[in-house]
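Forum: Protein Structure Q&A
Topic: Joint prediction for protein chains with partners

I've read a bunch of threads here and the consensus seems to be that you should model interacting components together rather than docking separate models afterwards. I'd like to see that in practice. Below is the full input, 981 residues plus whatever partners are listed. Could one of the regulars post the assembled result?
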Amino acid sequence: MYLSIILWIPLISFPIAYLLGRINGKLARMFAIFITLLDLAISLFVGIFKFDLANNHQLQLVERHDWVPTVGISYFLAVDGLGYVMVLLTTFLSAMAAIASNHIEEKEGLYYSLFLLMEGGLIGVFMSLDLFLFFIFWEIVLVPMFFLIGIWGGPRRKYAAIKFFIYTHIGSVVMLITFFYVYYVWSAAAGVPSFNLLHWIGLETYNGAQVLQAETVIATNIRTILFAALFFGFAVKVPIVPFHTWLPDAHVEAPSPISVILAGVLLKMGGYAIIRIALPLFPTTSQNLAWYIALLGVINLFYAGFVAIWQLDIKRLIAYSSISHMGIVILGSATATLGNYLGLIGAIYMMFAHGVINGLLFLISGVYKHRVHSRLIPDIAGLTEKMPMTSGFLVLGALAGLGLPGLAAFVGEFIVILAAISEWKLSIAYVVFGAILNAAMFLWALQRVIFGPQREDADVKDLELPEIISFSILGFVIILLGLYPPLLVDLVNKFSIEFIKFFPS
Amino acid sequence: MVELLGKAIGDSEFLVGLLSLIGFLAVITDFDEKRLNKVPYILSLIGTGFSIFYILFMWTNFQNELLADSYTRVFALIYMVSVFLILISLRRNLIDVPRQGILHGLLLFSTTGMIIATATTNLIMIIVGWELASITTYAMLALKRDDPYALEAATKFFVIGAAGSGIMLFGLSLIFGATGQIDLVAINNVIQSASQNEALMRYGIMILIAGAGYKLAIIPFHVWIPDAADGAPNTLAAFFLGVSKSMAFAVIIRIFYIGLPSLNDFWMPIFAFLAFITMTFGNLAALVQKKMKRMLAYSSIAHAGYILMVLAILGPTLALTGAIFHIFMHSLMKIIAFITALVVLEEIGSDYIDDYAGMVKRSLFITLILSIDMLALAGVPPLAGFWSKWFLFAGVVEGGLWWLGLAAALNSALSLYYYARVIKVMVLDEPKEDSRIRSNIYYSIPILLATILIIVIGIYPTPLEKFLTDAADALI
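Posted by a regular:
Agreed with the consensus. Here's the joint model:
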């Protein structure tokens, strides 16, 4: 019941936002902020009072109804620690992004209605355990994102929106084909059609007593192909180099609140799906390929880091830092397949922390774009005295992004690197240099933007109230998560310990 | 009382009688040339509306001379729902046709013919119903006497349609000659006892496929379709591409599933090949179309290819359910598309897809309806078009033709390109003019009703699916 409420509040209210926008744009904005805050409040309420923290490995708040029983599709919502963290991240960042959308001044009704539709789709992705339902929400997210970039974006918005759509859509088609293959094989072996993920990964009985792990009914070589296909489908979303080229374009063109959702939540769909679906569905295969998955993560880390250093557009720089951070997530999930639960905790921690940090950074880049009409580092340099608050938040975000101890990303990065070294010893110790590269890129950018010679002539205004509110909350969460990791770790510890039991030891 | 009548004379007879009566009344109440004469219009609406109600809630399953099995029932429902939606918009689209009574009468007679052709296993009755449905359609197209394009379309449609019907009749008569029977069940018995003339039978089947192919819009018998659709008034284009084609499929599926299943080794490969080239070339041709109506016509050909797959196997129930489902959904989706295109055509006077640019700023209603419809045609979940396609494709795979099912799935993915292009043009491109587009009530109501149907069936397909499975079971 509670999950359905969280899911359907934005999905039902999105037409209302449009209708209110017909009367007055401000009205639509107030309504969207109210809805996203309400959803955030409900998800916090559910987390505190209804979600059993001590048993975060169990699926809770389960809702199951038959939908199309002929082909084994059901309306199946449930969350465990991982799902809940993701839902919370979505509702939190959506509320922040809605508050920070104060520069959207045309077609506000349409903007906020698409925004709410996207939020609903994202929440649905993180809740559904029926893979068909999952796919529908996965696709629902694409459509509003396409329009949000394509209508409200920068000068090259059409190109960016279409590129985004084609890349991610190819990813989802490949994913869908894999789902259907597994569906047919599993259903033929079990004798009952089912899209239920728990059936496929052998966590739940069917026909009363049997358990059937999908991997056991698929031949080994086909298994590798299927895993690669599924991984590719998710990797486009993460994104993993070399399927990342849509991301910088989409980020640069998207309005900054949409960049927040794009980096903060959309990329997490990929990371979440790898952890939730790809790894448990093919545990043996993923364990055999663990080293290659880790390698992909490391390539992400280094490649994106090297490219990011040379970016002049600060938003592009942040976008590449996203890719580099997602590399750490992939590395963490790879260690989990070898039975290292710490790596998984680190990966999930990193996903949440990255969402919050990059949310803040993208909003700041939006402030520069709006005030200075440019995001190029030479143009926005030397405004520290004119824009003290903006600069302060930029320093906070950049320090958090480079993994300063005491701030959110450090915890995730540290745990993941620890886990990776404990699995692969010195052969992977050089990931530390990736972290240093990350630090270099942020510090050099900070030095040029903040600490260079000050400009006296510029006529710019500092933050406005809605921005101060959302920035402060984001900054507060960054510091809080950095100083008190158990806040998040306690949500996923049991989950991670149970999760590694999928993989043969 | 109505139920008693149905019990006394049979369900299909009741529908046929009712529709012909209303059609006759529509013709004789057309007292004068006054264009505001609403009597035929209202009579036809009441007649079709009541028929839908009868099919859904008062069906007695009593059959007399015509069949009243659930296969007939489902198809009668498909025809009546589609005709009802088209009828609403006729009041505006064809208001300049002088004889309104004749127009409505012809439409109802055509529907009568469709029900007769569907509700029988007798070859003579099939031909009678088929011809009644076709000839009335030619006449309807020709009613727009002052529009040269409509006349051209009517002529093309008439010449090719008449030739097609003739060829089909010839094929059926060869089958009759080979077996000596005119009832499909009896024909099947003769074939099973292996006492037919084998060579004659095969010629008959091939000629039957060629003749019916014109109506089914399958390649290589398709060339007239884009021209006819382009020239015809949109409502009538929706009628012959949506409803008439449903009838042709109902009849052909019945002939091959009831009459000729024992010869499936012969005709299944033919249909597999035809289905493959029809969907592939239909989609490829649709990719490059610049005019909306031509694009829809080619998409209709591609969809005919999907549906034809059900004849490439001697189906599992799932495939036949999917085929009937898709016939229904295709008819609804084509009605939405053509009537929406009609609104745009009337308002901006252009049918080119590029002129749909910036529609989102000019009319959100049209943009939404057309976007939903395009996504449904492409088979995007959770809209109705997705489920019908899935049942059909999965049924074909289950029937053993995995390569054809895969080809259909790939084709379907390809088709997303040209459907999505319409949405892209409407939403992202800058409008050429800023004037608002207002849809009038005669067009808004049918497209809204059909869109709601597509969404509701998409969200909860189970009840309809059960209904359709019954129909499929009746044939297998």
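The interface with chain B takes residues 67-71, 110, 132, 135-136, 139, 147, 150-151, 158, 161-162, 173, 184 of chain A (CB under 8 Å).
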